[in-house]
Write a structure and sequence with these properties.
Length: about 200
């Protein structure tokens, strides 16, 4: 790889991650606008009775996914941004689990997706805590591995938008169970890619 090619290559991963997270971030911004302007509909009515968890989840997840993409650049601001990313990720994970349990399920969700959200939300929070503990112990390889896993789960919404859209394009709207399986498959796919990245870094 030439010297001129390196700067271009190092931006490809963050750019791809920012593109992946664009849809959920825009959807979250639209939801915040609805909540702040009182634009209640049958689809968002469950959030108006208790909007704080939804707002925390949207803001936390958006910051986590956007700022986390730049961590792959490993620049001088890596440590400073990391101190913000971990709390944002924990807020996103914990508020998402709260929403899964407390908010009434919409018609297109079911018990399976609620369980999956609890499982992957717990896994994301655990990965971030383990990553934080590892960096405090100056075990940077373990820290990177757990943070990549946590980020992969946090990026689930972006991958889910792609997976569900592809399904709709080829097979039409999925039923409740199929939709849950598709959302779960997107999380698993992200974790598979994360493990590939981790193994690739270890074997270098």
């Amino acid at each position: 790889m030439t010297t001129l090619a390196r700067p271009r290559w190092r931006w490809q991963v963050p750019t791809a991650l920012l593109t992946l997270t664009a849809v959920p971030v825009l959807a979250g911004a639209f939801r915040v606008t609805q909540l702040s302007t009182g634009a209640e509909t049958t689809d968002n009515a469950r959030f108006f009775a208790d909007p704080v968890p939804a707002l925390l989840h949207i803001i936390g997840a958006s910051l986590f996914c956007v700022l986390g993409a730049f961590q792959f650049l490993r620049g001088p601001r890596h440590r400073m941004m990391g101190r913000l990313i971990v709390p944002c990720g924990l807020v996103a994970a914990l508020s998402g689990m709260w929403m899964a349990v407390v908010y009434p399920l919409p018609s297109y969700d079911g018990d399976l997706i609620m369980v999956l959200r609890l499982v992957f939300g717990s896994a994301m929070a655990t990965a971030l805590v383990l990553g934080f503990v590892a960096v405090r112990q100056r075990d940077f390889a373990t820290h990177r591995a757990w943070m990549i896993r946590g980020y992969a789960i946090g990026q689930g919404a972006g991958s889910q938008a792609v997976v569900v859209s592809l399904w709709v394009g080829f097979a039409g709207q999925p039923d409740v169970q199929t939709r849950a399986v598709l959302l779960g498959a997107a999380w698993v796919l992200n974790l598979v890619v994360a493990e590939w990245i981790i193994r690739r870094k270890v074997n270098r």
